[in-house]
């Protein structure tokens, strides 16, 4: 059974261990492919890890004019060093704004779900170092049917539906304001 990232941003304490672990991951050239965003700047300290959403039909790969972005076993990989021309089409096409371009190397990079680890059954580095279990690596069906809260893996962008392999736990709007208790 396929495994996916499950993110419960209500558990995030903003420690950025996921970013540091990602930087240390083999083959990442000390560039974190995980980002931590402030959810409501100026109103709360709530944060959320923001990895690639690993879209089932990735707009980043479809928009790449040189086919530098591959999808392998459902994982959307970072751009190939040999092919990427740093045009940023992937960045503009991604509805989640995830891919970044390293200007000095003219190369796109983003979360590749630590494919070197996950393809061998090991969890991504961000999962391994997260002290609060904000980020989990779960069987796809388990992640999509979490019993303690609703989840989102289908997104609507102005009539365009996008299904992702990164699953987000949605807070209960009646009991949670600003994403924290």
Your description of this structure?
This protein has 181 residues and is of the alpha+beta class. It has one domain (3-169): Alpha-Beta Plaits (2-Layer Sandwich), CATH 3.30.70.20. The chain is 18% helix and 25% strand. It is built from six helices and ten strands. A four-stranded mixed beta sheet has the order 8-1-10-9. A hairpin with a 2-residue loop joins strand 9 and strand 10 (160-169). The chain starts with a strand and ends in a 12-residue tail after the last strand.
Write the layout of secondary structure elements.
Elements: E1 3-7, H1 17-24, E2 35-38, E3 47-50, H2 59-63, E4 71-72, E5 75-76, H3 89-93, E6 100-102, E7 107-109, H4 115-118, H5 125-129, E8 135-139, H6 140-144, E9 151-157, E10 160-169
Parallel strand pairs: 1-10
Antiparallel strand pairs: 1-8, 2-3, 4-5, 6-7, 9-10
Short descriptors:
181 residues, alpha+beta, Alpha-Beta Plaits, two-stranded antiparallel ribbon, 6 helices, 10 strands, globular
In short:
The protein is 18% helix and 25% strand. It has 181 residues and is of the alpha+beta class.
Total helix count? 6
What general form does the structure show? globular
CATH fold name, please?
Alpha-Beta Plaits
Q: Which structural class fits the helix and strand makeup?
A: alpha+beta
Low-confidence stretches are 174-181
Q: What Rg is obtained from the alpha carbons, in whole angstroms?
A: 16 Å
CATH first level: Alpha Beta
| Sheet having the most strands | 4 strands, mixed
Strand tally is: 10
- Overall pLDDT metric: 89
């Amino acid at each position: 059974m396929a495994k996916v990232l499950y993110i419960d941003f209500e558990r995030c304490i903003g420690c950025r261990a996921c970013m540091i672990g990602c930087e240390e991951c083999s083959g990442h050239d000390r560039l974190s492919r995980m980002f931590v965003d402030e959810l409501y700047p100026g109103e709360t300290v709530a944060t959320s890890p923001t990895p690639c959403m690993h879209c089932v039909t990735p707009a980043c790969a479809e928009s790449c004019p040189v086919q530098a972005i591959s999808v392998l076993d459902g994982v959307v990989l970072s751009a190939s060093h040999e092919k990427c021309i740093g045009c940023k089409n992937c960045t503009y096409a991604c509805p989640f704004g995830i891919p970044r371009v390293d200007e000095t190397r003219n190369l796109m990079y983003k979360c590749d779900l630590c494919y070197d680890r996950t393809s061998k059954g090991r969890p991504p580095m961000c999962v391994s170092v997260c002290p609060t279990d904000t980020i989990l690596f779960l069987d796809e069906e388990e992640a999509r049917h979490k019993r303690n809260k609703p989840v989102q893996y289908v997104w609507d962008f102005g009539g365009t539906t996008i299904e992702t392999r990164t699953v987000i736990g949605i807070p209960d709007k009646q009991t949670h304001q600003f994403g924290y208790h």
